[in-house]
Fold these 2 entries.
Entry 1:
Amino acid sequence: MQQQLERPERKQIKNIDFNCDLAQSFGVYKNNSEFELLDYVSSVNISCGFHAGDPLTIKKALLAAKEKNVVVGAHIGFDDIQGFGYRQMDLDEDEIEALVIYQVGAIMSFAKSFNMEIEHVRPHGAMYKQAAEDFGFACSIAKAVKKCSKWLVYYGASGDVTQKTGEYVNIPIAEEIHLEKTYNVDGTVDFTVKDNSSVFDYVNRLKTLLNYSQVSNREGGKTFVNADTIHFSGKVPNIQEIAQEAKKIITPVPVNYKNVYPSGWVE
């Protein structure tokens, strides 16, 4: 549960995942700069061919992640290449299930051919935003993900919707933070505000998150959030510089490593 705190309470985060998107290209539309983030993240979300990604680009992304020993996941989205997955679609549960299984299954099979396994699924664009706000929609996605594998982690925006989805569907979740975004008092993202690409602000927000499990909200206060992973968006022009500075503060670890660390099985 998220709440606004008048006085900071120290709730440190010792292990956290950094994730970014890969295969955000299609045909002649290339985005090779995204591969530069592989040195700074612990997991990547590989586009599945709907909002972006073609077979050769997906193959290149998988092999690049394997070379860097980075965890891979499926980056699912609406079938909207021209709109890059940022246009919301009104789909029923059967359509959502088919859309998700088709995309996740493609990446799972592709990864298997290279002796790799995918560990998570993250929605993209309009699908991500709708899943952050609509419990029923988020559950439809999570149920479809679980049909692909009960071990897959569902990546969603930090907050009550993602938490309740994980509990209701009984699927492992990772609550995600966007440090370039503006947060509302209730811990939800205000997607209408322009991203903040200041390295100084980003570093300070990261330190606050790690030291207190809090983010600055639009009313000038601090809001408590759950944070398993931080998304590094390729839409931020200086994201590589930001990622470099972030990794100086904490070395990221994959979500599954983070979850098993308290057990003592890893050091």
Entry 2:
Amino acid sequence: MLSIPLIAGSTRRDRQSINVARYLLAKLQQRPGVATELLDLLEYNFPIMEERLHRRDDPPPRLQEFGDKLAAADGFIIVTPEYNNGYPGVLKNALDYLLPEYERKPVGIATVSAGGFGGVNCLAQLRPVLLAMGAVPIPGSFRVSHVHDSFRADATPADPKYDQEAAEFLDEVVWFTEAIAARKALAPKA
């Protein structure tokens, strides 16, 4: 069974990206052979990072739990809004707490925006950060433009095109996760 949790990368009031995260979570839960859960940064509420988890003997509340879940994951998905052409500081803060937990893990990135470009600038900035941390951002992405109109509060899309796009995105996330997990099983890193 593959473990592919989703990180909800915003804590903003009235955030719309959580609807997209819940939608992708529901779609991923329907996939056989995949275990998933939503890791909502709003629920974790980490303070500003002072030192990485693996270098602390006094981690903030729930940081060890968060780190353990990502360490045990075969891959993960980040769902984040684009704020001012970038990604939220709360997401960068949470990512910076960890490092070995990301090594050689595929990451699917879903971005949302209030405007018409679906968070493409956020996506472009987040990929090199993940690469620098040792993760493997997959080529495909799931982008949602005009999120206020595109997704309802019950986490369903207003446009059925998102069902096909989500299926293709999740196919790619699962493919990369299976491929990398299989390679790791053959030759684990020493």
